[in-house]
Structure formats: C-alpha cells, structure tokens
Specification:
- The chain folds into 2 domains: about 110 residues, no CATH class; about 70 residues, no CATH class.
- About 10% of the residues lie in helices and about 45% in strands.
- The protein has a 9-stranded antiparallel sheet. A 4-stranded mixed sheet has the order 12-11-10-13, covered by helices on one side.
Amino acid sequence: MKVRIYFNLHRKCLSVQTQTPKGWRVWKHMSEAHLENVTFKVSKAGRQRVLREGKKNVHAYIIGDLVDGKPLTEGETVTYNPYKFSSFVLKDTEAPIHKADKLSIVGRTITISKPKPMTTSTNTPPVIKLSGIFPNTFSVKREQTERQTFMFEWHTEKEENGIRVSLHAAIKLAETFESFGFTQIHKD
C-alpha cells in the first residue's frame, strides 16, 4: 500500500497517510514503519513559511510502499532540517537524497539501505572513463584538504569553469544547475 509519512511533533510519532479521492488523509499513527520504493519530498513553499515564521509546519514527507519487516540494521541515516537544508540529506555527508530502495523509520531515526554495488561476473565493478567536455553538465568532487572543500565544475558548449566551494554551496549549486537543465556527471 502506498503511504505518505511525516513525523508528528505533537504526538511524537509517525503519522501515516493514504491517498483518498479528497487527497492524503491520516490513516494511522505508528512508532515505526518500513517502506520500499521510497521518495523524499519537501514542499518549497512550506519550507519557506518555516524560515519566514520561525515556526515548524508539516511540509516534508516520505512516500513509499508500506511493507512488513524488521528495522534495517545496516544502512545510512537520513535527516532533514528546514533551517539547514532544502531536501532530506544523508546525515554523514549532508548529500541530498531523493529516492531509496528500502527504508526504516524508528521514532525519528530514518535509515535507508545502502545501494548494492554493480558487479560483473568477475566481481569487478565496471569502469567507465569520460574524456572531453560534455555540454550542459556539471560535476562535484571532494578535495583532499584539511577543510571539507569541493571542486564544482560546469561545462557549456563554449567553455569549462570551476570553483572551490563548501559542502553547503556545492549542494545549492547542484540544485540550481539541475533546475537550469544541466546533468550531473561523475568523473575522477
């Protein structure tokens, strides 16, 4: 069953909604939930209202197929803070997360399954090397320095540019470039 979940600040539990002809409605309250085929959604207007008024409101949801199961014991923790991020992020790296295969929510802790690495018959991951400049693309690469800095590079049909930025700036730039129709590529 497809559900939409948010943390209910008043009841201190999860509010689980199902879709009805009149829209999403609360179906039940739970202390934990397990989902598959997960999408993370944050309403931009709702977040802006939180920032403007300094008062929390329901504007961030996790949508997926509700399944029976036990909490994930391994995986990555996901978090959301409207004062720091415009999307759900991985707690360790603060990288934006929009989808996941499996997820467990226990109280306020959100854990997603780690994606399984692609392997070939020899258990060696395939390597694809990119060379040249690809128009309307960008890449973000962590630099090996004392401070947590990233190199953000972007390419147009005419030129290649790059700047050194913080993690927060890299996330914001990636969101902006994607809204302009650029595609993120990964390169070494």
